Amino acid sequence: PVFLAARERAADRCREVLGTDRGTQDLRAALRGARDGRVETLFVPLEEERWGRYDSDADQVEEHLVPRPGDECLFDRAAVETLLHGGTVYALPRATMPGEGVVGAIFRF
Prior knowledge:
Elements: H1 2-17, E1 23-24, H2 27-35, E2 39-45, E3 51-55, E4 60-64, E5 72-73, H3 74-84, E6 88-92, E7 104-107
Parallel strand pairs: 2-6
Antiparallel strand pairs: 1-7, 2-7, 3-4, 3-5
């Protein structure tokens, strides 16, 4: 119950900041924010994958419908970057994701 309550508070906060400069539903913006340590909380969909490559040096995201050699799941990449910078990640069923976007992210700044 404690974990679920914390997740629900975070989801409510995410819904509040979506559409402002403190939140995003865009995977590319979430990846960039996670790389820069800006993502405080990230929501990714369970049982879904988004294949591609993220070149953090060039700040380029390439997405593919099916995995190609050298691809990674971009949801996983955003989650790892968020965790490496001290953020929190929640993986949820699509129906319970905050907002209608691919991901949900709350930025620290």
